[in-house]
Amino acid sequence: AGLFLARSIERDWRTYLDRKVLHFAYFYVLWMVIQCTIKCSITAEHWYDVPLHMVISLVEPFGTLWFVYILPIFFITTKLLRRVAPVAILAVAALLEILPIHTGWTVIDEFAARYVYFFAGYAFAPLAFRVAEEVRQHPLPALGLLAVWGALNTVAVTTEVHVLGWTGSASVLPVVSLILGGLGAFAVISLSALLTDSPFGKLFRYMGERSIVVYLAFFLPMALLRTVLHKIAPDMDVALVSIAVTLFAISVPLLMDVTIRRTGGLGSFLFRRPNWARLVPEKPARPTGHLVPAE
């Protein structure tokens, strides 16, 4: 998300808050209510547990929606600090990632663990785009470097270490996790650049432009198919289950989006903010084929 921030960080506060805060706040509240209504209605012992859980979810992010919840905090923090030297911000953010911060509150814990990557995306966006272009021009060396990264990452993840009575994967050690996270970010950029010129490039671009659609709505088809497969094929290979569930969880939201668009926009509020939830008028639609951030 930080990669595209340079395009909008100097906008006036009204526009910035509309695109970077209200945008995500609207979708968080909407889909928190949807998810909580479905999930909590099944598990709740009392009728008031559902609305109570919704109120709590305004403070403690609900399930996988934590990322939608925390993005506006990243955006506001970065705009407020835009006059501070990037090196200083990166140093503090890296320290937060390295420190074992576990408060039990998702907002603080995830901010400490993730902000360094968000800000690095913003600060190093020109470098990231240059890397992507180099990868597209030299695909074979890029594939070789990706293979090396994959091997190193696998070794780090699968290597068990014992430190001061703690046992776990080497990949989560302080500093090591930061380095692996940075390398992983460039690996994702490189792989995305390679896929752009592949036969599946248009498909991945289509999905990328609708990433928020998938992220918001994948939970229900994922849970549904996982439950069904567990009942009808309990001995099915775990890898096959994972692949089937992933493909289904991605496809259903995209089909929902297409259906909404082709039926005159009925239900469009699920993936598109209505006018009453905007501080500034909606931007004209961009031509396709361009990199498009999720607002």
Structural notes for this entry:
A hairpin with a 2-residue loop joins strand 1 and strand 2. This protein has twelve helices and two strands, in the order αααααααββααααα. It is mainly alpha-helical and 295 residues long. The chain has a two-stranded antiparallel sheet. The chain starts with 12 loop residues before the first helix and ends in a 33-residue tail after the last helix. Among the domains are: 1-123, no CATH class; 124-197. 15% of the residues are buried.
How many separate helices? Answer: 12
Low-pLDDT sequence parts? 288-293
Strand order of the largest sheet: 1-2
Q: What is the helical fraction, as a range of percent?
A: 55-70%
Mean pLDDT across the residues is 90
* Structural classification: mainly alpha
Shape: globular
N to C succession of SSEs = HHHHHHHEEHHHHH
* Major pleated sheet: 2 strands, antiparallel
**Using only CA atoms, what is the Rg?**
21 Å
User: Span between N and C termini?
Assistant: 9 Å
| Number of E-state strands | 2
* Strand residues, percent: under 5%
